[in-house]
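INTERNAL AUDIT FORM
Audit reference: QA-55
Scope: verify that the stored structure record matches its stored sequence.
Auditor: D.O.
Record contents follow.
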Amino acid sequence: MSQRQVLQVFEQYQRARSQFAQAVADLAARPQSIDTLRSAGVVCLLRPLLLDVVPSIRQTTALALGRLADYDVEMAEAIVKAAILPQLICSLPEENRYYKKAAAFVLRAVAKHSPLLAQAVVQSGALEMLVICLEDFDPGVKEGASWGLGYIARHNPELSQAVVDAGAVPLLVLCIQEPEIALKRIAASTLSDISKHSPELAQTVVDAGAIAHLAQMIPNPDAKLKRQVLSALSQIAKHSVDLAELVVEAEIFPVVLTCLKDSDEYVKKNGATLIREIAKHTPELSQIIVNSGGVAAVIDCIGSSRGTVRLPGIMTLGYVAAHSENLSMAVIVSKGIPPLCLCLVEEHEDHIKAAAAWALGQIGRHTTEHARHVAVANVLPTLLDIFVDPRSSEDLRTKTKKALKNILQKCTYLPALEPLLHEAPPSIMKHIIGQFSKVLFPWIF
């Protein structure tokens, strides 16, 4: 047998391995093929190909495993049980960029399903490898690594802390400064996933200098990037007064208000969420929002939106109004009551109606003047109808009852109370009669 014939055997074997890996990768992209691949024991057949001498076969094998793991939790568990993860990453730093991207995809696809699987990824030693990939020259590799870290961090504080301990945060902050938009998006999303769990984790992100770079990207025309930037700032600001003040000090006002007019619904929602997370902390922070024209912008956003996009704006008005008489009056003067009342009528979701009822209760609870403004807008009959409606959820009934009580206990405007006398149940009637008594028999009180 000639040398050529001998080599031909090896070439055929290599071609067959390559064709097999490619065919499985193609089949794994089709959901209808997954069960057949599973029953054929595809994971065990792919495992040795991860150590193949041919780089393109290793890369295609990793892609196939990523697609399988991405499909469902059972396939991801099978990959972990087959001890594929340590094999996948053992030589990651020396591999080419295509393999690194495919390997990061496998780690992400496994980690996304559950905290247990994400923990398995961490225990395989993947964090260190992903952090090394964050320093890679190729932006696609950085993006894949950042995405993988985000899927690990999002599950719980312990996994998020593991990502922090691996040294990822400073490198993620560098990634948001890179010119590639896709990399900026994923890095901002991962910083958001890390920050959301606790004040300590958010502080780690702040200490790495993230706030200033995130704030600078708010005016960026890319909607998907803005969504992630606003989400990251919200997740930082929500934890404490100090963190919220640091976000405000990055001069996000008034530029963040332009997001409330964005054509992208998620940008609007995330912009309103950021303002809500700042407003809830103190009267001083709410006053900054009022002074920058934030209340009027939030009211416009509520008026021009529908469904869950309205929710953070509704809650913002409630938080601002709750702090003090003056801030509540600022909401009234900015014509905040009519759109909240509209939400009670137009929205079908009980939790949105409940938020609107709560916000109206916060506006009307301060003084007789505040309560009168709410009553004149014909809010009370609407709240009462929701309260007595048997289709209303328990939470909605509780919130409307509390709102009615808050407003009625301050309301002395009898023309608004009279229509309620015919329909109000005893639990509400006692508050109405109490107000009539205060007005008609003031010497008793």
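Auditor finding: record pair retrieved intact. The CA atoms of residues 364 and 371 lie 4 Å apart.
Action required: none
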